[in-house]
Amino acid sequence: MLGRLNHVAIAVPDLEAATRKYRDVLGAKVSAPQALPEHGVTVVFVELANTKTELLEPLGDRSPIAAFLEKNPSGGIHHMCYEVEDIIASRDALRAEGVRVLGDGEPRTGAHGKPVLFLHPKDFDGTLIELEQV
Ligand code: CO
Questions:
Q1: pLDDT by residue (tens digit) across 21-62?
Q2: How far does residue 25's CA lie from ligand 1's centre (Å)?
Q3: What CATH number does residue 102 fall under?
Q4: What was the pLDDT predicted at 58?
Q5: Which residues touch 33 (CB under 8 Å, ≥6 apart)?
Q6: How confident is the model at residue 123 (pLDDT cuts 50, 70, 90)?
Q7: What's the half-sphere exposure (Cβ side, CA atoms, 13 Å) at 13?
Q8: Ligand 1 center to residue 9 CA distance, Å?
Q9: pTM of the model as a whole
Q10: Domain region containing 68
Q11: What is the helix, strand, coil percentage profile of the chain, to 5?
Q12: How many domains does the chain divide into?
């Protein structure tokens, strides 16, 4: 079912400071910040040779990462995103194994314009997993 690692997402309290560290200290290629109001985040993509790191800062007062940053004020790894070929087939197979899919279980359009779903962290060893159909 699993394809490549699409990205690792890190919730950050200060997107500008985090971007500066990746760009100026680590020498990485970083995107301009993109506001994604429908996801409640502003994101900066760090382009790596084999995958991406995404830096996420809360946007608006109903951001899904606000509670995470309250618990982890200095930031932290928020989720991993794995690529799948068929997100509906993957969802159905996971549900058949008792894995909880977050929300109403219908894929939403993610930060890259592709369908995504999130799996309950308690069903994956404390890790929030995003599946993205590529
Ligand atoms: Co993601």
A1: 999 999 999 999 999 998 899 999 999 999 999 999 999 988
A2: 24
A3: 3.10.180.10
A4: 97
A5: 15, 19, 42, 43, 44
A6: very high
A7: 8
A8: 6
A9: 0.92
A10: 5-133
A11: 25, 35, 40
A12: 1
